[in-house]
Amino acid sequence: MKDDDLFDLEHLEFLEEADADEPGFLGEMVQGFELNGKKFTSGIQKGLKEQDWEGVRFNAHKLSGVSGALGAKGLLELTRKVEENLLSGKEFLKVEGACLEILEIFECSLAQLKNKVIENSSVL
Amino acid sequence: MTVIDSRKLLKKLLVRLAVLRDDPGFPLKLRLALSECCEICESLSSQGNSESLNPQGLFVKENQAVNKEKLSSPQARVLVVDDDEDTQRILNYTLKKQGFEVISKTDPLEAFHELDEINPDLVLLDLMMPGMTGFEFLSQLKKSSKKRRKIMVCSSRNFQKDRITVLERGAHDFISKPYNITELILKLRIMLPQYESRGTPLPDQVYPRVDP
C-alpha cells in the first residue's frame, strides 16, 4: 500500500518537521503508536471473540485517536466506520470484516512509520 | 514615501509583526499597503522620526524593535487533558511552538482535582477517557464550586449529538480529531484574545506575508 493511501501526507510532513526540530520526536510518536495500537487492536480482537461489541467500539475509538495523532488516515477511517456502525446498533456483520481489515492496516501503517523513522534518522 | 523609525512603527503596528522574525542582526523588511500605514507614518513623521526614503516601501533597518515589553507579558496557560500520550506529545509540541504554556494530564480525575491549582486559561479536553469521561468532567465542573474555565473539547468522537451535549454542559467549543493545526491555533487565539502569539507564524492565509 502506498503512503498516500494510508497517511495524511501533510500531517506526516508536519511530524517530520517536528522531528527535525526536536530530534527523536517522530521515533517517540511511532513507539507510542506501536504500543497503544497493539493494545487497542488486541482489545478489538478480544471483543470480537467474546462478541463484546461495547469493548470493540471502545477500542476502535481509542485506536482512531492514536491513528489521528500520526495522520494514519486509512486506519482512522476504518476505526470510525466500526465505531459508527456499532453506535447505530446495526451492521454487526460488516463490523467483523472491518475489524479484520483494521488489524491488517495497523500492521501496514506501523511498518511504514518505522521506515519513516529510519529514513529520518539517516538524514544528517 | 517616508521611512520612519522602526521602533516607533512596530510599537504602532505591534505584536504580530514582532513575532514573525526574531533573528538578531538580520534586517527586517516590512511591506505594507499605503492605505494601512499612511496615518501611522504621518503621525510619526510629524514627531520627527523620519530617516530616509525607500521606493520599495517601508524598510526597517534592524529588528531590534521587537517589543520587549510584549515579550515579557504572560503566556496563556493551556491544560491538555487527554489519555493518549501521542496526542499529548503532538499538542505539547504544537502549542509550545505557538507560545502557549502547556500543562499535560493523562488522568482526567487528577486534572479535575488540580484544576484550581493549575489555574489554566483554557482546557483542551478529550471525551473518551478512562476514569472520567470528558462529559463527566464538564458536568462535575458545572456542579462544583471550582472557577469556570474556557474549555475546548477535542475528540475523535465527532457526532453532532456529542458536540451539542458538550456545549450544553459548559464547553465553549469543539474541535474534532484529527484536528487541523491551523484551525486549532486560530480557535485558541479567538478564545484567548488577551494573549497574542509569540510563536511560529501560521501560514500566509492567516497572517499577511512579510518578506525577510
Question: Which terms summarize this structure?
Answer:
heterodimer, A: 124 residues, mainly alpha, 6 helices, B: 212 residues, five-stranded parallel sheet, 10 helices, 39% helix, 13% strand
List the helices and strands and how they pair.
The complex is a heterodimer of chains A (124) and B (212).
Chain A: H1 3-6, H2 9-21, H3 25-49, H4 53-70, H5 73-87, H6 92-122
Helix pairs in contact in A: 3-4, 3-6, 4-5, 5-6
Chain B: H1 6-13, H2 15-20, E1 28-29, H3 34-45, E2 59-60, H4 68-71, E3 77-81, H5 85-97, E4 101-105, H6 108-113, H7 115-118, E5 122-125, H8 134-143, E6 150-155, H9 160-168, E7 173-176, H10 181-191
Parallel strand pairs in B: 3-4, 3-5, 5-6, 6-7
Antiparallel strand pairs in B: 1-2
Characterize the structure shown.
Chain A has six helices and no strands. Chain A has 124 residues and is an all-alpha fold. Chain B is of the alpha/beta class. In chain B, 39% of the residues lie in helices and 13% in strands. Chain B contains ten helices and seven strands. In chain B, strands 4-3-5-6-7 form a five-stranded parallel sheet, sandwiched between helices. Chain B has a two-stranded antiparallel ribbon with strand order 1-2. In chain B, strand 5 (122-125), helix 8 (134-143) and strand 6 (150-155) form a beta-alpha-beta unit. The longest helix of chain B is centred in the middle third of the chain and has 13 residues, at 85-97. At the A-B interface, helix 2, helix 3, helix 4 and helix 5 of A face helix 5 of B.
Short structural summary:
By secondary structure, chain A is mainly α.
Morphology call of chain A: elongated
* Proportion of strand residues of chain B: 5-15%
| Order of strands in the sheet with most strands of chain B | 4-3-5-6-7
Arithmetic mean of pLDDT of chain A: 88
